[in-house]
Amino acid sequence: MFFSWSFANISFFQPHAFLMIGIPGLEAIHGWISILFSSMYTVALTGNCLILLAVRRTPSLHQPMYYFLSMLALTDVGLTLATMPTTLAVLWFDHRLIGFDTCLVQMFFLHFFSVVESSVLLAMSFDRFVAISNPLRYASILTNYVIIRIGLATVARATVSLFPLPFLLKRLNFCPGKILLSHSFCFHADVMKQACADITVNITYGLYVVLSTVGFDSLLIVLSYTLILHTVMSLASPRERIRALNTCVSHILAVLVFFIPVIGVSMIHRFGRHLTPIVHTLVAYVYLVVPPVLNPVIYSVKSKPIREAMLRVLREKRKG
């Protein structure tokens, strides 16, 4: 009895750490690549923090649309901070080890902010639908109380959906020789493939999370814009139609910037095993790094109130 228990205990193995990689095949120029990534992280953090400050300090931006934009900016800051430390550590210092538990924590927050971003984009599509289809009741429908509840619901949804993931990985038996990850951060699909056990439960639950969050949100966003188009087409004046659609351009671009890489990552992890490792790595970087960089650029270019408020914040900083 004691022998069988000891054997079972010894046979269960979890690595103390995983070994991350940067961009496979380009290790010799990681120093130069780090300049690009450092610049992108700087733009992401600076741009999104500027949006947060601009909305906070400008009373005219205290409206539902800009509150949701602030949620998006805050989520992008979190997503950037989730990947930045390990990515820059690999590219700058070739520091490739990450502890097992630290890896699980990073994985949770990485996917947490992704699910929150999907939920916020859905909330923003609802905001555009209400603003266009029922403008007279816009302020009475999307009150501060409702916006706070939507924000809390997005956080609660992401937490409940993703909380089981680290524990489902902790129960797995890993092989001593399989510790090499495919990225410079911990991705759920990547970590679970290092196990030497049956990962059917992990695959099934991971697919459920993707479909019930990002997949469900994308369908509702398409539905929202179908209803928006129906409302816009009923407007008599072509000028009014263009004006109404112009208010949606920034959000449509943000949706495309987020969901196209998400679809790419999902397809590659499930059907792209024959592709070279560099393709997997680059698509993952596009998914996690590009949206936080481009969202502030999109909204500062397409939204005049946001652009002016951001410039005002910068001028105040210079004077200060």
From TrEMBL:
GO molecular function, one term: G protein-coupled receptor activity
Topological category with respect to the lipid bilayer: Multi-pass membrane protein
Stored Pfam families: 7tm_4
TM stretches of this protein: 7-26, 32-55, 67-93, 105-126, 138-160, 207-228, 249-272, 278-301
GO cellular component: plasma membrane
GO biological process, one term: cellular response to lipid
Sequence ranges assigned to domain G-protein coupled receptors family 1 profile in this UniProt record: 47-299
Record InterPro entries: GPCR_Rhodpsn, GPCR_Rhodpsn_7TM, Olfact_rcpt, OR51/52/56-like
Transmembrane in keyword set: yes
Keyword Transmembrane helix: yes
Keyword terms: Cell membrane, G-protein coupled receptor, Membrane, Olfaction, Receptor, Sensory transduction, Transducer, Transmembrane, Transmembrane helix
Localization (cell): Cell membrane; Membrane
Matching PANTHER family: OLFACTORY RECEPTOR, OLFACTORY RECEPTOR 56B1-RELATED
Family: Belongs to the G-protein coupled receptor 1 family.
Record function comment: Putative odorant or sperm cell receptor.
The protein's name in its UniProt record: Olfactory receptor
Provenance organism: Bos mutus grunniens (Wild yak)
